[in-house]
Design goal:
By secondary structure, the protein is of the alpha/beta class. It has helices spanning 10-17, 30-38, 53-66, 95-101, 104-120, 151-166, 198-205, 207-214, 240-250, 265-271, 273-283, 297-313, 318-341, 351-359, 397-403, 418-429, 445-457, 486-498; strands spanning 19-21, 42-45, 71-74, 125-126, 171-177, 219-222, 256-258, 288-290, 361-364, 375-381, 408-413, 433-438, 462-465, 477-480.
């Protein structure tokens, strides 16, 4: 491709510095190493880059051999959205489980232990936590990624999560400003819209971000959502009214502003990727998240050159780009200093399972005896959103097979009707006790219909809800885990066996 920038001059270096690109592979590509020498200051790791913690440590070591003050970012919320445990499921419950317990000290301990693992792997920047207030239970992309539907609860746990993570020298990136909780559209696919008045937004959506700022969050991530009460024309990521007037001037935030993934259709499908990046930096963003999908050198060069061209044409003030790049470098310096200091408390590797056990809510409709014989685990699979991805296993089946040898498992999706799905489960169970595992039953009519038929035929069925527990508890035993992390599955399996 033809590029405008021919050498690592100050403008080119600043344009590279604001990018946080991903890449393919489990070792450092040559093109990434070259660009680090030319000014690239950040890289992002996704599930495709992770095999083991030892491999990630070696990868970050390769990258830092080229640039010691490198920001290595990851989208590691724990819970349903995990990259470090992408192939096994997370060792830590997610936000909704922590909110269900409502013990900020526990939240702080969980995020501190997560931070230790990230720091040990050479990761120093985490695009988490989600500070979204889950005001819409039908939200297709937030759900259990939120601490809950109460603004006060979300605020106190957001602050605790930030404090715990950053005590390990890993920078937190609180998201998705100004709040993605009251949407019914996934911004990976289109532009969500929040049609509430400014008074509601200030009272409900902003307090968790205020709490994060007070707790010292080093970064805040913008949301690709249209909020007409704040800006009727542009989504948050591209809005100077939201990023500069509100976040910077009114809330007094001085840290790094990062965009959500720019290749998400809410931006790339409406404004185009390169133009969207220019608009985001102009509006007040400091760093560009890209690489969840587009992860090649050509993308990085195209974005670099778009920023350089925008400065030369006068569309993007050079001082705005320089300020953004300086904030990136400032954060890199903070992580280096904080990493040297290290956390002051001892490791607690069991804290994830402890938290998952505390989050469980068990409802019994009658006497339920402990189980000591094999069961059939019927897992009802909803379509997963892109943030969660489809690589990560979930559910209690693995642990139940360990606790009750001979147990079987099967899964079904919404491609079947409720009656068909239930008939499939009953046939596969072959007389064994059934453990029906659902995720957001209230959002999936086919799932609810399958449970109706299944419970009519087998009222002794145990139901495990691993999403938002909005539907009424039912089954001989109903277990709500408030998330689908691996440790939530372990805790649920223990409760199934205990009866």
């Amino acid at each position: 491709m033809t590029t405008l920038a021919t050498g690592p001059d100050t403008l080119t270096r600043d344009a590279l510095a604001v990018l946080q690109p991903g890449f393919d592979g489990t070792t450092a590509p040559d093109w990434v190493r070259r660009r680090l020498g030319e000014g690239l200051a950040s890289v992002a790791l996704f599930g495709r880059n992770v095999v083991t913690e030892e491999q990630v440590t070696a990868l970050t070591g390769q990258l830092r051999a080229e640039r010691d003050d490198l920001l290595v970012a990851i989208d590691e919320e724990s819970g349903d959205v995990t990259r470090l445990d992408v192939r096994t499921g997370s060792s830590f419950p997610g936000n909704h489980a922590l909110g269900a317990v409502d013990d900020p000290d526990l939240t702080r301990a969980v995020s501190r232990e997560l931070g230790r693992r990230l720091a040990a792997c050479g990761v120093n920047f985490d695009w988490a936590p989600s500070a979204d207030v889950n005001a819409n239970a039908d939200n297709p992309v937030i759900g259990v990624r939120s601490f809950g539907a109460s603004t006060g609860l979300v605020a106190r746990h957001t602050a605790a999560w930030v404090e715990g993570l950053q005590s390990t020298g890993v920078a937190a990136c609180t998201k998705h400003f100004p709040g993605h909780g009251d949407t019914n559209v996934d911004s990976h696919h289109a532009v969500p819209r929040i049609d509430v008045d400014a008074e509601t937004l200030y009272a409900r959506e902003l307090p968790p971000f205020r709490a994060a700022i007070a707790a010292g969050t080093r970064a805040i991530m913008s949301a690709h959502i249209l909020v007409p009460a704040l800006d009727p024309d542009r989504p948050g990521t591209l809005s100077s009214r939201i990023l500069t007037d509100l976040l910077r001037d009114e809330l007094g935030y001085r840290g790094l502003i990062v965009t959500d993934g720019m290749e998400m259709r809410a931006i790339s499908g409406t404004y185009g990727l390169e133009h969207g990046v220019v608009l985001a930096i102009t509006a007040g963003a400091d760093a560009i998240c890209v690489g969840g999908g587009l992860c090649d050198e050509g993308t990085v060069l195209g974005l670099r050159d778009a920023l350089v061209a925008a400065v030369r044409s006068g569309e993007l003030p050079e001082e705005r780009l320089a300020d953004a790049a300086a904030r990136v470098r400032d954060l890199a310096r903070w992580t280096a200093e904080a990493r040297t200091a290290g956390p002051a408390t001892a490791p607690d590797p069991a804290i994830g399972l402890i938290a998952a056990r505390r989050a469980l809510r068990v409802t019994r409709t009658g006497a339920v005896a402990p189980l000591d014989t094999p069961v059939h685990v019927a897992q009802f699979e909803p379509a997963r959103n892109i943030a969660v991805g489809d690589q990560t296993p979930w559910g209690p089946a693995t642990e139940l097979r360990r606790l009750l040898p001979g147990s079987t498992t099967g899964s079904t999706t919404g491609s079947r009707t409720g009656d068909d799905a239930a008939a499939q489960v009953l046939a596969a169970a072959d007389g064994r006790r059934i453990v029906a595992v659902v995720r957001d039953e209230h959002r999936h009519p086919w799932m609810g219909a399958a449970l109706d038929t299944l419970l009519a035929a087998r009222p002794d069925t145990i139901v495990v809800e691993m999403g938002l527990p909005q539907a009424a508890p039912r089954g001989a035993l109903h277990i709500a885990t408030y998330g689908a992390a691996r440790v939530c599955g372990v805790a649920a399996a223990e409760a199934v066996v205990a009866g």
